[in-house]
Specification:
Number of strands: 2
CATH topology: Histone, subunit A
Strand order of the largest sheet: 1-2
Radius of gyration: 16 Å
Order of helices and strands: HHHHEE
Number of helices: 4
Structural class: mainly alpha
CATH superfamily: Histone, subunit A
Shape: elongated
Number of domains: 1
CATH architecture: Orthogonal Bundle
Largest sheet: 2 strands, antiparallel
Strand content: 5-15%
Distance between the termini: 41 Å
Length: 95
């Protein structure tokens, strides 16, 4: 078991089936073996950037807890407009 101070890396958390589902949602039928590590690196970098900006957004509110609204605000600041659909109970992305 890892120490509570150690961060779990995205690389270890994203299995091949997860990456394949992401690729399929993007319209990709199959992936070569060397795509998986590259995809993990890209996802890891994007997640680090989102969390870095989210911590700044959260710090401006002077709270210690990162809330869902902070993530939505962060994504909007980064140009990713995500809207919540309360009717469907899901989150959808808009362009």
């Amino acid at each position: 078991m890892s120490d509570s101070n150690e961060a779990v890396t995205t690389t270890s958390a994203l299995a091949r089936p997860s990456l394949m589902r992401i690729a399929r949602r993007g319209g990709i039928k199959s992936l070569s073996e060397d795509c998986y590590p590259e995809m993990r690196n890209i996802v890891n970098k994007q997640l680090e950037e989102i969390l870095r900006v989210a911590m700044i957004v959260n710090g401006e509110k002077h709270t210690k807890t990162l809330m869902v609204e902070d993530i939505y605000e962060t994504l909007a600041l980064m140009g990713h407009h995500v809207t919540r659909s309360n009717d469907l109970g899901t989150t959808t992305c808009s362009k």
